[in-house]
Amino acid sequence: MAQSSDVNLLMTRSISPNDLLIRRLQSIHPVSNEEIRALRDLPLEIASLEPGHDIVRMGERPTQCCVVIEGFTCIYKLTSDGGRQIMAIHVPGDIPDIQSLHLGVMDFGLAPISSCTVGYIPHEKIQQVCDTYPRLGVALWRETLIDAAIYRDWMLNIGQREAFGRVAHLVCELMMRLKAVGLTEGSSFKFPVTQANLADAFGISSVHMSRVYGMLAKQGLLLVTRTHITVLDWDELQEAGDFDPTYLHLERNAPA
Amino acid sequence: MAQSSDVNLLMTRSISPNDLLIRRLQSIHPVSNEEIRALRDLPLEIASLEPGHDIVRMGERPTQCCVVIEGFTCIYKLTSDGGRQIMAIHVPGDIPDIQSLHLGVMDFGLAPISSCTVGYIPHEKIQQVCDTYPRLGVALWRETLIDAAIYRDWMLNIGQREAFGRVAHLVCELMMRLKAVGLTEGSSFKFPVTQANLADAFGISSVHMSRVYGMLAKQGLLLVTRTHITVLDWDELQEAGDFDPTYLHLERNAPA
DNA sequence: AGAGGCTCCCAACATACGTTAAGCTCGAGT
DNA sequence: ACTCGAGCTTAACGTATGTTGGGAGCCTCT
Q: Which residue intervals define the domain HTH crp-type in the entry (chains A, B) (predicted)?
């Protein structure tokens, strides 16, 4: 499969971390060769992170943005009585806090939900690139708009579907987003995220999360391990999750 | 009160519909006098709408944006089995579909949830203003980022709080947003939205919506009629809704 | 003023999901 | 190979909320 060799390419360092960002932007907006060169020249300060240590904390005023290079991060907020809602999950190529470019104060926390590596880019560098190549500025704006579109879809998911459907829906979403950056391996993908974290993303308890995974497995839709998710029946899963990929605004929507 | 006379000013047509948009942008971003003039010159095609008729439908590709002038509109999505999730409520001054500027296909529906009047502005006119005054482009980008911040907060609300807290939270939010455009009347505001609509915004049934309103009234936090909401105890309401206005990113956050 | 239609309210009952608590499994480290 | 802890699973029981259905209040139109 082309996808799994892409993973290997990344491992062997023959594609640079910036290429994931480029791939992501290409998946939602046309990017010229000159713009690609500009993106490739962006300085990335690489860091390895483990769950439990925030990347940016609520209330901070960051002066840089973060690009996910490997692993998964999430956006979350807490209620005063200890509840945690995860409201976004990021895959490699995403810029989780791109909004900090124009919204000074962070109104959410950003944290790894698997061990992961990220790259930091100073705001001013991004600003410079946008000034020189206005179409890249539009691409980044578009990126933030798609983030919002995903928020909307999650709200539909959490507000109107039962837990079973919510999980099916998210798995479909992750499958498509990972495929867009070439990180699926056939009909499965690496996803070392605990059920407790997922529960917080669905607004359910971790006990119920376990129940639902069990039901999905029993019905032959999914096969889940601690590190991977395998889709056994894409059509049924899409049906169960009432999934329509329009909201991802990908240039070309191919099923897995 | 200054607020209620503002309402009268609007009635008597001594402020133009564009002024609400200007007021909204000023509440989140500095706007120069020259920029104000440019905004005032934007052509607005006015329309009166009733609930039940969509403003823009899912899947369409609008060539104009809509500004709310009076009343309330909402963004919604449907599940295949008939559920409806309202994921945003707009107050006068808001541009509900500003995202259509850079995201061709609508991935949600936009509809009035009270009788209301809106104004339409062609995309190209907005584009021109942004090209001439880049800071206005940034202000609009910022506007879309704040929309996203509100989505995030709603997700926390729906995913982690019980219905009682959800309702308290939203009332706090509406109070502050309406105050920012001068549309509160002391500690109350006009809000002719049915409980069935609100139920769809909270992800609960309309029966439960009624229960919760009853509880809020019984505890002396709120007084609700078909057309108005009056906050009886702002501090308690804020407490009950676990409300922190940071996410609204208003320039100055004054309590009601 | 009466009829019809929304909207809201209330009561009885059903259920998806939360909570608690107890084992179990797996992988990391010695 | 053994230990230990984090994560997962299962069961029993409690509750917030859904559903159904009936009735009361309140507009609007005739």
A: 161-235
